[in-house]
Write a structure and sequence with these properties.
Elements lengths: L1 H25 L6 H32 L3 H4 L3 H16 L1 H9 L12 H27 L7
Helix pairs in contact: 1-2, 1-6, 4-6
Length: 146
């Protein structure tokens, strides 16, 4: 069961990164109805992957791996958790804009909004890179305190 949970956790993490990368690439160009639809789909995948990561991650922490006491006494895990929350909070801004596009047609963006979207998605990607670093550190026991 632990191996299956780890597999699903990693698969969700890869899906999350792919969805962010797709958003980042598509938001660079002029937005069309087609690209807006693809961005909305990528955002839905990002949200679903995030949900799976939370659920499976909590199952792993509390039931399947070393136990909550181990993880909550590890600075790398706490940093990973804080970064995940930060990326989730950052994702609210793009998602709210993407939801406005549901009516179809080419989306209209206010002045500077596309640049802000790219910047926020870029910060999300940077946060994910740091999450992966924290995961690697945590797996090696770095950051453990008592």
């Amino acid at each position: 069961m632990s191996a299956l949970a780890a597999f699903v956790h990693h698969l969700a993490a890869f899906a999350l990164v792919a969805a962010l990368a797709i958003q980042f690439v598509l938001i660079r160009d002029e937005l069309t109805a087609r690209s807006a639809r693809r961005i909305r789909i990528a955002d839905a995948v990002f949200g679903a992957a995030s949900g799976v990561l939370v659920v499976v991650g909590l199952l792993r922490v509390f039931y399947l791996e070393k136990g909550a006491a181990y993880y909550f006494h590890n600075a790398a895990f706490l940093a990973k958790l804080a970064l995940f929350i930060a990326v989730g909070l950052l994702s609210i801004y793009p998602t709210r804009i993407f939801l406005r596009w549901r009516k179809g047609g080419a989306p209209g963006l206010r002045a500077g909004e596309q640049r802000r979207l790219r910047r926020v998605i870029h910060w999300e990607l940077a946060g994910v890179v740091l999450i992966v670093l924290c995961a690697a550190l945590m797996a090696r026991g770095v950051g453990q305190f008592r």
